Amino acid sequence: MAGSREEIDARLGNKAERERIKEYPGYVRRFVRIPGPEEMMVVLTRDPSLVGKTVAELTPRGHDPLDTLLDILRSEGDDIHRPQILIRMYPEDELASFYEHSHCAVGSDATALSLNGPLGDEVFYGAFTWASWFLRRIVRERQTLSLPEAIRRVTSLPAERIGLDDRGVLKPGARADLAMFDFERVSESGTLEAPNQLAKGTAHVIVNGVVALRGGVVTDGRAGTVFTSA
To answer: Which own/partner contact pairs does 198-205 have at CB distance under 8 Å and 24+ positions apart?
Structure first.
């Protein structure tokens, strides 16, 4: 939202302006209606009493769930972009059916974060959990994919799709990006209350030939690179 903190607060507090926000351009209301407010859980906000509750639980009977979301935004003060909502869009069985397709590359839009440093105070639900959840639940427990195929889906397949021929594979001349893990122990540690926790079961990680994780402990190695369009 554009404007100063005072201007944003005034708009969110104005009934007519709220209705305009809720109807423009229309996707906001559809965003709530398609999954339903009962499938939208608050995972990050200034008020810790809201965390872990769904928008449906926080919305009084007869009230618009979108007003609940706007109230949460308004209560954030100067940090209006901080609140995060977890939306359960796809049932697990539906996800598993996607994974069965041989062309389905597996990834996440979760932000890459750190346990400390400049990003140590930032949180993003899924940043530390999505890959370990995929290996634990979809591969080990449900056995939707074999382990070699699952590894291909998160490494060489997405790299190939975006034209990175020196990543996602083990071959002479390729980038030395390696993760060594115990498949029987891989699982997520992050929770709603504390999402930034290293997953279990990974022993060592090498990035561009530099050890980034040794014995389950993060090192000072920082060999990652940022991709930019040519």
So the answer is: 198/115, 198/128, 199/128, 199/129, 199/131, 199/132, 200/132, 201/132, 202/132, 204/178, 204/179, 204/180, 205/178, 205/179, 205/180
For helices 65-74 and 5-12, angle between their N-to-C axes, nearest 10 degrees: 160
Give the relative orientation of helices 65-74 and 15-23 as an angle to the nearest 10 degrees: 110
Is 0.90 topped by the overall pTM? no
Q: What is the CA radius of gyration of the chain?
A: 21
Token output for 190 = 């992050």
223 near 209, Cβ under 8 Å?
Answer: yes
Render each residue's pLDDT in the chain as its tens digit; 230 residues.
677 888 888 888 889 988 888 877 565 556 555 678 888 889 888 898 998 899 999 999 999 998 998 999 888 877 888 888 888 878 899 999 999 999 999 998 888 888 888 877 788 888 899 999 999 999 999 999 999 999 999 999 999 999 999 999 999 999 999 999 999 999 999 887 788 899 999 999 999 999 999 999 999 999 998 888 76
Domain ranges, ordered by start, for the chain: 5-87, 92-218
